[in-house]
Specification:
The complex is a heterodimer of chains A (179) and B (344). Chain A has 179 residues and is α+β, with helices and mostly antiparallel strands. Chain A has five helices and four strands, in the order ααααββαββ. The N terminus of chain B is likely disordered. Chain B has 344 residues and is mostly helical. Chain B has ten helices and no strands. Classes of the chains: A alpha+beta (179), B mainly alpha (344). At the A-B interface, helix 1, helix 2, helix 3 and helix 4 of A face helix 4 and helix 7 of B.
Chain lengths: 179, 344
């Protein structure tokens, strides 16, 4: 009987904590948002300026988001597992799908079936989409690695398959070995 | 501008479902008629015919009894939900939505509408204009809903509506206002208006919903536009004033709506309303459809049965066969109906 009561109390507490964490994450995402790519890219393309500003905005937004997420979820380790957990939370709460491919001590890779570039208008050329894809992925991944892995260094690569019309884009995070 | 105020997807899907159902029924009846007509040549004995008619009549008499019980059950559930919501509604109009609160929200929505109409007019980029126009449409929709609530509130308190909010509407928006005002006939229906407002403003309650499946709420569109305006400021394409004003309005509206939303969720209105809608649908559409399919063959059989003689049997043979087939369809609808009742 005592064991049953203990279990019930634990489950209840766990659910309460989970609910509260979800509420906090919801508030965090409401506070930090980046401009919708399908709108901002045509604007920047037309003005011919603002790429650096966009990079800075994405980096700052993701840094704040990830810092907040780490605190709420209690993630302190500076390794690939934490990168994976944080990234899963970010994509999940943004409503994006992803499929993990590999997770080791030094490497985390996954594929995504959708990306903001796919929603950018058809009149924006592939070159421009490619340029902004690099810009956004660089800023976002740097924010993730700086916030989670630092002082360790990491690298991130993406194959732009979605822009080229292939099924899924593969993203790979790797720890950089220091001598 | 008001093209954004659309018929909800729910209604559209319900309309499509009914059309599909009716089409299936018509096709079934026509097919049944053709099959029976083609098999008319086959003879059927007088005794068999009488047995068929007696059994069909008895079966559908029983089914009619069951369906009446079903109707009473649904009606009971519907009344229960109605009284629960009706009990809560006066408190909402009197306290949750005070006159000051409605006026303050309407002022903020009007400010948003004006600011984004100007922004939409000043941009040459289609995507940006679409975003701003979407904001204007949603703000207009919410403005109309609050005007409806204000009118109801004043009517409840026996006060005269000065029409101040109506004067801010153009002709198409006024038509929407009138339509929405007329659609509120019962007290509990104010909750549909309040829920629509909250749904237009807030993000969906559940996360982990595929992006493609959700419509962006006004709140999210405003945040996106703030992020765009911020970036445009950095490249000298926009002034800081607009962004600051929008951010301030967003924050004030957030405070106002979070209070209403919190209360709405505490009172379980978002759960009660769909149940009410479902009970209402079942009580109406499914019941009358099932009733028609059971009562029609039953009545025909009752009319035929007393006159049955060998001559009349031959004469009525196709009709009797059709009514029997319709009865089978009646059973299917009855089962569907019971299934729906159980899922309310």
């Amino acid at each position: 009987m005592l064991l049953l009561t203990k279990t019930l109390v634990t489950v209840w507490m766990w659910r309460a904590v989970k609910k509260s964490a979800e509420k906090q994450i919801r508030a965090l995402f409401a506070e930090h948002s980046i401009p919708p790519m399908e709108v901002i890219i045509p604007i920047l393309e037309k003005t011919g300026r603002g790429e650096q500003e966009l990079t800075a905005q994405i980096y700052n937004t993701y840094s704040s988001l990830i810092k907040g997420l780490k605190e709420i979820l209690g993630l302190k380790d500076k390794n690939m597992k934490t990168v994976a957990k944080v990234w899963e939370a970010v994509l999940g709460f943004e409503g994006s799908k992803f499929e993990p491919i590999e997770l080791t001590e030094s490497r985390f890779s996954f594929s995504i079936p959708d990306c903001p570039m796919l929603h950018v208008g058809k009149d924006v050329s592939l070159n421009v989409k490619g340029k902004f894809c690099d810009l956004i992925c660089t800023a976002g991944s740097r924010a993730l690695m700086d916030t989670v892995l630092s002082p360790h260094k990491g690298s991130c690569t993406w194959n732009k398959a979605l822009i080229r019309g292939a099924g899924k884009c593969t993203v790979v995070f790797e720890l950089v070995k220091t001598a | 501008m008001h093209g954004g105020i659309r018929v909800s997807e729910d209604r559209m899907s319900s309309f499509k479902n009914s059309s599909l159902l009716i089409s299936i029924l018509i096709v079934s009846v026509v097919l049944a008629f053709i099959i029976v007509w083609l098999s008319m040549a086959k003879s059927m004995s007088y005794a068999d015919m009488k047995t068929i008619l007696t059994t069909t009549t008895a079966t559908f008499g029983t089914l009619l009894g069951i369906i009446t019980a079903g109707l009473m059950f649904t009606q009971g559930r519907f009344s229960e939900l109605t009284s629960e919501l009706t009990e809560k509604s006066p408190n909402y109009l009197a306290k949750v939505l005070s006159l000051e609160k409605i006026q303050s929200i309407e002022t903020l929505l009007l400010a948003l509408k004006k600011a984004f109409t100007q922004l939409a007019a000043s941009t040459r980029i289609a995507e940006e204009r679409n975003l701003y126009e979407r904001i204007v449409a949603k703000a207009s929709s919410m403005f109309v809903d609050f005007a409806v609530l204000l009118n109801l509130k004043l009517t409840q308190q026996g006060l005269v509506d000065t029409g101040l909010l109506v004067s801010e509407m153009d002709s198409s928006l006024y038509r929407v206002y009138q339509k929405r005002r007329q659609s509120v006939n019962k007290e509990w229906q104010i909750f549909s208006v309040i829920k629509r407002i909250i749904d237009t403003w807030e993000a969906p309650a559940a996360f982990f919903i595929a992006k493609s499946n959700r419509e962006t709420p006004l709140q999210a569109d405003l945040k996106s536009s703030i992020a765009i305006l911020k970036l445009k400021e950095n490249v000298g394409e926009s002034s800081t004033n607009i962004r600051t004003e929008v951010a301030k309005t967003l924050s004030e509206l957030n405070d106002e709506f979070s209070e209403i939303s919190k209360r709405l969720h505490e009172d379980r209105i978002p759960q009660l309303l769909p149940q009410m809608k479902q009970a209402s649908t079942i009580r109406g559409k499914y019941f009358y459809l099932a009733l028609a399919f059971i009562a029609a063959p039953l009545l025909i059989n009752l009319l035929i049965l007393p006159q049955l003689s060998e001559t009349t049997t031959t004469f009525f043979q196709p009709i009797i066969s059709i009514t029997s087939l319709l009865s089978v369809l009646g059973v299917i609808f009855l089962l569907l109906y019971i299934h729906k009742i159980l899922s309310v």
